[in-house]
Amino acid sequence: MRIVVVGATGTIGSAVVRALQPKHEVVAASRSSGVNVDIREKASLERLFQAVKDIDAVTAQNAEVPIRRLRRSC
Ligand SMILES: NC(=O)c1ccc[n+]([C@@H]2O[C@H](COP(=O)([O-])OP(=O)(O)OC[C@H]3O[C@@H](n4cnc5c(N)ncnc54)[C@H](OP(=O)(O)O)[C@@H]3O)[C@@H](O)[C@H]2O)c1
């Protein structure tokens, strides 16, 4: 399958890429990847889906927030 991994350069995304690559064609995408996308921009997403054809699946593990432990109130 041809799978677009959005957030491929990140902690989770790079692990997803490694897990998929042996069996699939991975398209690594993010703002700094060769396949460039900024998911905040509709036009950027449209360019991605125009540039990459015949996509079977998309995974998204992108974020720009710090990972924090949740506090319990009780
Ligand atoms: N790490 C953990 O332990 C953990 C645990 C549970 C859940 N999560 C969740 O998993 C997701 C990813 O976490 P992470 O730790 O892997 O984050 P990370 O290492 O900071 O990676 C974030 C990825 O998202 C991309 N990205 C950020 N903004 C983007 C945008 N506007 N458009 C396209 N790509 C964008 C970044 O690449 P560019 O900067 O090149 O765009 C990078 O590839 C988050 O939703 C997080 O809440 C993480």
Question: Your description of this structure?
Answer:
This protein is an alpha/beta fold. The protein has helices spanning 11-20, 42-51, and strands spanning 2-6, 25-30, 35-36, 57-60. A 4-stranded parallel sheet has the order 3-2-1-4, covered by helices on one side. α1 links the parallel β1 and β2. It is globular. The model has no long low-confidence stretch (mean pLDDT 92). Residues 6-13, 30-32, 37-40, 61-64, 67 line the site of NADP nicotinamide-adenine-dinucleotide phosphate.
Which tags fit this structure?
74 residues, alpha/beta, four-stranded parallel beta sheet, 4 strands, globular
Short recap of the structure:
With 74 residues, the chain is an alpha/beta fold.
Backbone structural class? alpha/beta
Q: How far from one another are the termini?
A: 46 Å
Number of domains: 1
Task: State which percent range the strand residues make up.
Answer: 15-25%
How much helix is in the residues? 25-40%
Using only C-alpha atoms, the radius of gyration works out to 14 Å
- The overall pLDDT average reads 92
Report on the biggest sheet.
Answer: 4 strands, parallel
Q: What gross morphology would you assign? A: globular
How many strand units? 4
Number of helices: 2
What is the ordering of alpha helices and beta strands? EHEEHE
The small molecules bound here are: NADP nicotinamide-adenine-dinucleotide phosphate
Low-confidence stretches: none
Please list the strands of the largest sheet in the order they lie side by side. 3-2-1-4
